[in-house]
Design goal:
This protein is mainly alpha-helical. It has one domain. The chain is about 85% helix and about 0% strand.
């Protein structure tokens, strides 16, 4: 049942994003930023943790989860390092995921030899 719930929640988030893309003039990059900021704000308000525990991977995998990951890292770093934690917390908490995306993106480009569209 956890898989079904995660699938439905993740699908609902994707459907809402698709509606935003179709019905507004927002560019995909701005919608992605909106999702990351929304995850951070929901984490700050204490709403994201109960939601992600209920929804499972359906809430933690999309960009909302990345925003919450940044917020959690910043919150932890502020507790340890004070004001400087604002600047380093997000980087330390998300470094592995960002590094993985860069490395696998690079490897994919070597394997598939992408070309520019004309």
């Amino acid at each position: 049942m956890d898989y079904v719930k995660a699938f439905l929640v993740g699908g609902m988030i994707c459907a809402l994003v698709q509606i935003l893309m179709d019905k507004t003039k927002l560019m995909p990059g701005r919608i992605m930023v909106l999702l990351v900021v929304s995850g951070s704000v929901l984490g700050f308000l204490g709403l994201y943790q109960p939601f992600s525990e209920w929804a499972g991977a359906g809430a933690t995998v999309p960009l909302l989860g990345f925003g919450n990951l940044l917020w959690t890292g910043i919150q932890k770093a502020i507790g340890e390092d004070g004001f400087l934690g604002i600047f380093k917390g997000g980087f330390t908490s998300s470094a592995v995921g960002i590094s993985g995306a860069l490395i696998f993106g690079y490897l994919g480009s070597l394997i598939f030899k992408p070309k520019m569209k004309h």
